[in-house]
Amino acid sequence: MKKTEEKPYGHTLLKSPTGIQGFDEITEGGLPAGRPTLVCGGAGCGKTLFGMEFIVRGVTQFNEPGVFMSFEETNEELIQNVSSLGFDLDDLVKNKKIVLEHVHIERSEIAETGEYDLEALFIRLGYAIDSIGAKRVVLDTIESLFAGLPNQLILRAELRRLFRWLKEKGVTAIITGERGNETLTRQGLEEYVSDCVIMLDHRVTNQNSTRRLRIVKYRGSIHGTNEYPFLINEDGFSILPVTSLGLNHTVTNKRISSGITALDKMLEGKGYFRGSTILISGTAGLGKTSIAAHFAEASCKRGERVLYFCFEESPNQLMRNMLSIGIDLEPWVQKGLLQFQATRPTFYGLEMHLVETHKAVNDFKPEVVIFDPINTFVIGDKDFEVKTMLMRIVDFLKLNQITALFTSLTTSGTALEHTDTNISSLIDTWLLLRDIELNGERNRGMYVLKSRGMANSNQIREFILTNHGVELREVYVGVGGVLTGSARLTQEALENAEVLSRKNDIERKKREIERKRKKLEAKIISLYADFDSEESETLKMIETEQDMIKSLELDKLKMAESRKA
Amino acid sequence: MPDKENPDLKIKEKKPRKTTKDMWILRLYVAGQTPKAITAFSNLKRICEEQLDGKYSIEVIDLLKNPHLAKEYQIVALPTLIRKLPVPVRKIIGDLSDTERVLIGLDLLEAS
After folding, report:
1. Is the pLDDT of residue A540 over 90?
2. Are residues B69 and B61 in contact, defined by beta-carbon separation less than 8 angstroms?
3. Which letter, b or e, does each residue of A374-389 get, where b requires 16 or more Cβ atoms within 10 Å of its Cβ?
4. A111 interaction partners in chain B (CB closer than 8 Å)
């Protein structure tokens, strides 16, 4: 593992990477090395686990042995508790990588009889540290001492000494503390630990619980100041540093088909940009899911992996419904190219959804992610949070060059171009589906509201769901508005009739000219005939005349002969 | 460090109990010869002499020399006095300068 203990400017604080997913990103390297850090929070917020993961990952990832001094749980309990997270603590203890030290003080067993100090605690801790050469120490929860030992004055002085001693030892320490009423910790431990304070929080809003982490202070280091949602799952902690993502994702000019030829045509004939974010919005029952399913199918056909989050339908229901318009998704599921993630949005909090999305995307590594629909997240007045969450998702997906398709249900009565989640600014290609009510019919219309980076069609198309998928038709724009459905059909019939009559006209004219030609030809023939007869008569006459001339000459000769002239 | 020279045991109005029982085994945890450790030891010796009539043994454990021994009885504060026998185990912290509290802690005196 690469250590982040680089010193670009010489005096930069050394940091000790925790290995906790996401934490080293928001702290730019981890906890302050060789110093104590206070981790505070209410009951059940994950303080102990945070400390334990710091220790375990320290061993497994950074080869830094650690001491976990527990004031609450016994070693056996600790081993059991973290085994569910896949940490084999027992093994690490046996291999002398981790020392678990359980410190137990029972107030009722202790009688105080004068001056004392906590030197024994120092000795125990020091002994544990030295026995394995520990670099990391966790004290969980040292405030238990306050319950066990009556003399607060001594205790406070000793704690101050302890933290100084820890610094001198050069170990990176985590001290956990229970959250107090007005202070960060019940006993004001923040007074003693001033280098780094981390607050964990477990909040329930609208019956959804969310865990959050915030870095209250981090002396000598830049750090994210936001509240970061985190999750404790079977892999331990996972913190989302997503708000720190910038707008510097690389873009591609590659285009991918939407699965609907006519829609591709509207988008310069090429379809969506890869890695872009597409929103399909519209009122209920307009075929948003159908467009999404087309896209899913087209992507699978290209051999890409598709992750489909459905928040309203079960995968089986969705597949059955899509089969009715001729989209068979099941083979792709079986091939492992298509994966459904079906959860109710209310099932857990927004951050949890975010984390789950991250996790699912990281596990499945899809090229295309579909969210159907996103506005179900909006429960109560959480617009802002939903928007932030979606922004995080969009940023995250863009960074990974994943094409995202969202559907959003527009509630009737609101402006069509309004999305409940107000995410339009995050969207690259926005397809708007609208219903067009005319002549007692409700038809579907679709147009491209915007599409960044392409010369998209400005036309409204009629959107028809057929048993072989979605079809887009030209619509007619007339005086009464856009014509769709049967009005469009009527219009089409009218046009057809006109064409027909024109065709008839042409035929008729053709016939007439033919007739005229024939008449003319007949006339010519008869004239020829007249001429012929006249000619032959004339020839005959000429012949007769010539014969006459000959006979006259002959007669003349004969006469002369007879006269013997 | 057993200490059995204790000629005149004075049982005062404090009505000590269990002095007739078997051997008391006491263990005093310290870390080096600190003033608190020295005070604690002399206080302990005095109290034992006064109360236990020679039936006791005191073992002083220096955690600086044997740090691993702190774990056994969950020692946190120093000095700590452990009454190993008679059972139940008792734990007393501090330099033992409050005699009454020591006696209560050792079960030699009922808490008033």
Report:
1. yes
2. yes
3. bbbbbeeebeebbbbb
4. 90-93, 101-102, 104-105
- Dump pLDDT digits (tens) for B16-53: 444 445 788 999 999 988 898 999 999 999 988 888 87
Nearest to A214 by CA among A26, A354, A17: A26
Residue ranges per domain, chain B? Answer: 24-105
CB-based contact, A246 to chain B, within 8 Å:
no
* Apex A111 CA angle, A105 and A113, nearest 5: 125
Q: Check pLDDT > 60 for residue A4.
A: no
Q: Please judge whether B31 and A119 are an interchain contact, meaning their C-beta atoms are less than 8 angstroms apart.
A: yes
**Chain B residues whose beta carbon lies within 8 Å of the beta carbon of residue A126:** 67
Return the domain boundaries, chain A.
Answer: 15-244, 255-483, 485-565
Asked if pLDDT for residue A335 goes beyond 60, the answer is: yes
CB contact under 8 A, A116 and B70: no
Fold of the CATH domain B24-105: Glutaredoxin (3.40.30)
B77 vs A contacts (CB less than 8 Å): 116-121, 149
Contact A111 B31 (CB under 8 A): no
- Whether A15-244 and A255-483 share one fold: the answer is yes
**Measured between beta carbons, which residues in chain B are less than 8 angstroms from residue A113?**
92-98, 101-102, 105
Read off φ and ψ for residue A315, nearest 5 degrees.
-55, -40
Q: Which residue has the higher pLDDT, A249 or A166?
A: A166
Residue A76 is inside which H or E element, if any? helix A75-83
Across the range B57-76, mean pLDDT stands at 89
Question: Is the reported ipTM for this assembly greater than 0.85?
Answer: no
pLDDT of the residue at A139: 92
Is A187:A145 a contact under the CB 8 Å cutoff?
no
Give residue B5's pLDDT. 45
pLDDT value at residue B50: 87
Q: Looking at residue A305, what is its pLDDT?
A: 92
Instruction: Count Cβ atoms within 10 A of the Cβ of residue A90 and give its class: 0-12 exposed, 13-18 middle, 19 or more buried.
Output: middle
Whether the pLDDT of residue A56 is over 70: the answer is yes
CB B78 within 8 A of CB A116: yes
Average pLDDT over residues A401-421: 71
Gyration radius from chain A CA atoms: 45
3-state class (DSSP) for residue A173: strand
Cβ–Cβ contact B78 with A under 8 A: yes
pLDDT of residue A67: 94
Domain A15-244 is in which class?
A: alpha beta
Choose which CATH entry (3.40.50.1700, 3.30.70.980, 3.40.50.300, 3.40.710.10) describes domain A255-483: 3.40.50.300
Structural tokens at position A253: 């000019």
